[in-house]
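Shall we go through a protein fold together, starting from nothing but its sequence? Label the sequence line and the structure token line clearly, so we can match residues to local backbone shapes. Would you write everything just below, so we can both look at the same thing?
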Amino acid sequence: MMRQCEKCGTWFVAKLDYVKLCYPCWQRRKDAETLVDELEEEVAQLRATNSQLHRQLDARGDCRPSKSSAIPAEMVKLLLQLSHPDRHGNSAAANKATSWLLTQRPPR
């Protein structure tokens, strides 16, 4: 039976009563659905990887603060001067504090 494609308006022979799209329009729709499925799967994988990386960073204590909670550059400089290991007998605490403060410096 002859039908007009609901998508493009082309006339085609429908082999089944429920067919409303010509083959090219049907194929484009199937390809788009397949692509959407693949992209959704990729997004899910990327989110899982992102979560895993955040957990690893949290466990190591390497997470940088968000920009809104970042220490101002002038304050980092001052804190580095105050906590430097040379001023504290090269103590483990001074080394650890200085190392952490160095990671808080804004990029140049």
Observations:
- The beta strands are 2-4, 11-13.
- The mean pLDDT is 88.
